[in-house]
Amino acid sequence: MRRDKKGFCSPGRKNGGFTLFEMVVVISSIVILYMVAEQRLNELPAAAERANFYAILEQIKTGMNLEMITRLASRDTNGLRELAGTNPMQFMLEPPRNYRGELDDVTDRNSTRRSWYYEKTTGELVYVVGGPSIDDVWVTIATIPVNLGQIRFRLENVYKNDVSTNKGSRWQGLQLLPVRQYKWERRPETPVEI
Predict the structure, then answer these.
(1) What angle do CA 147, 151, 157 make, to 5 degrees?
(2) pLDDT for 107-140, tens place per residue?
(3) What residue spans define the domains of the chain?
């Protein structure tokens, strides 16, 4: 071992900094970490929008179920059946901030992304998908996945065939049903644009 001027032991090589190989390894590691972090951070807005969409949807369904229970307890089944096709946002204590209201004529259906509105002419509650989530939401039209950029719901009366008594259909309740089946997931391999 060599001793330096102050008397400390030092290995045989001089401490002059990083070698070229060490520098390449450090830079490569930083680039790989950056790419992984960027990919994860880019997915966050879409995941947040999806979580917000499902949270509001569940709040609407909960409010609708409370209204149904209240009307059934007061034996107002006819009034309950008449709610089909009405605005489901009426069941919430307070509408979400991104609710645009009841609209008669929607000229630009994609004008405000990440928002809800009730279209009076069709009786449908519409969510306009926004930003990075647009490519992830697909509705099914004639068994073909199509990207429309929006998801539509409608309040419907649900009936069940009563086979045991041969009386035909029996009213089961009110449900918020999608107008077209949808999936909120990664894009299919063969997309069809309309």
Answers:
(1) 135
(2) 665 567 888 999 998 999 999 888 777 777 888 7
(3) 19-193
